[in-house]
Specification:
The chain is α+β, with helices and mostly antiparallel strands. The chain has 12 helices and 18 strands. The strands form 4 sheets. Strands 3, 4, 5, 6, 7, 8, 16, 17 and 18 form a 9-stranded mixed β-sheet that branches. Strands 9, 11, 12, 14 and 15 form a 5-stranded antiparallel β-sheet that branches.
């Protein structure tokens, strides 16, 4: 059986028809549609010489035994955001399955090949991203996560139980790390860089670190008609200044990004000056030093704008993760594979987080490959990639897997 990228594309379309609607993909983790997607994937394993099981955290493992017990892991995730795209996450899983098929067709591979569909990469329902891979990596925070609720007030722990898993046993997923020698992941870029360069594929250097905070400005509620402009203590005005300033803060650094993604005002009526404004700030960069500098700059700016508007400001950390660089040897092998198949490569960081970051944090050598996203759009039903580029990505991913398998045995 030769490698068949066309089959991967057809299976992606089959999955889209099964689990999507006119608004996009609906494979949100811990829902019936997600379970349907996993059942469909499991049906693709018939007649393959593999062992298959789900671990304690709901990660789905497919293992092709090799001459060596040392294992090459190929990963992705079938879960999606609500109204998501047809490629985000599931391309990784189905391309990995095709690579496993190719290995199997040639007899017993030199190393063990393991395909994993991570549980709840997106965190779309409960806000906790990388759930299954963090359990695998041993970075999962059970007590902090079990009582998270969705918009309907359902607890994460209860949703997990409904799908057949015991939240208290999530840490047992670390057992799957036995013999793991390397991890590779293919993903759509989800941004506009490769398209702007006219390139189909990219080599990912690592995932950017993230600082995520709630910033609350406190002013004074007052009547919008009777309060002179000169004496107002407008919390929204201070927040608005910061929202503009973070763009300048990010622009000082080549690949850094800063985003104020939500604003809530109180009392939130048209006839009252805003007395309290709650905002969120998300900052990302591949450098720890740059990330720390941007955080300092944003704090200083927030204090300055609060003072200008006769307000006060307080910060509360939501979540953070350090930058995760990928393994230099695997970066080189990925570049070789991309050059072989596409003729040219481009090194780039990943702004979005991926399961590969959690695997790398566990000390397992890892690398990612990106394929171009049209218009840079993702997490949207308009998400798309040229089929020619999808086929190239499967071929390049297969070439990478072969190289890494040999690297494991060096």
């Amino acid at each position: 059986m030769s490698l068949n990228p066309r089959r991967t594309i057809d299976e992606l379309k089959e999955l889209r028809a099964l689990t999507g609607d006119n608004s996009g993909a609906q494979r949100v983790a811990w829902t019936d549609t997600w379970l349907k997607a996993r059942e469909w994937f499991d049906s693709k394993l018939k007649d393959l010489p593999v062992e298959h099981h789900y671990d304690a955290a709901g990660n789905n493992w497919v293992t092709l035994p090799g001459e060596s017990e040392k294992a090459l892991l190929l990963g992705g995730h079938l879960d999606s955001v609500p109204n998501g795209g047809w490629l985000d996450g599931c391309l990784n899983v189905l391309a990995a399955l095709e690579v496993l098929r190719h290995f199997a067709s040639k007899g017993k591979p030199p190393v063990t090949i393991r395909v994993v569909d991570w549980a709840d990469e997106e965190g779309a329902r409960f806000g906790r991203s990388l759930l299954g891979s963090s359990a695998f990596a041993g970075t999962h925070s059970i007590e902090a996560d079990r009582n998270l609720t969705d918009k309907d007030g359902i607890r994460l722990e209860d949703a997990v139980k409904r799908c057949g898993y015991d939240f208290a046993r999530f840490p047992d997923a670390v057992r799957e790390r036995a013999n793991a020698a390397a991890y590779i992941e293919l993903h759509i870029e989800q941004g506009p860089v490769l398209e702007s360069l006219g390139l189909p594929l990219g080599v990912v250097l690592g995932t950017k670190g993230v600082e995520r905070h709630t910033i609350t400005f406190h002013g004074q509620e007052a009547h919008s008609g009777s309060t002179p402009m000169a004496v107002r203590r407008d919390a929204l005005a201070a927040a608005a200044k910061l929202a503009l300033e973070i763009r300048a803060i990010a622009s000082k650094h080549a690949d850094a990004v800063c985003t104020m993604g939500s604003v809530r005002t109180f009392p939130g009526i048209v006839t009252a000056i805003v007395g309290r404004c709650e905002t969120t700030l998300d900052q990302r960069d591949l450098s720890t030093a740059v990330l720390a500098q941007m955080l300092r700059d944003a704090r200083i700016a927030s204090e300055r704008f609060a003072a200008e508007e006769r307000c006060t400001v307080e910060w509360s950390r939501i979540w953070n993760i350090e930058p995760v660089p990928f393994h230099p040897d695997l970066i080189g092998l990925c570049e070789d594979a991309v050059n072989e198949i596409a003729g040219v490569s481009h090194r780039m960081p990943s702004g979005p987080l991926h399961d590969a970051a959690e695997v790398a944090r566990a000390g397992i050598p890892a690398v990612m490959m990106f394929v171009q996203s049209l218009r840079g759009i993702s997490h949207n039903r308009m998400e798309d990639t040229d089929e020619e580029h999808l086929a190239l990505s499967v071929r390049a991913f297969d070439a990478l897997a072969s190289r890494v398998a040999q690297w494991i045995l060096r």
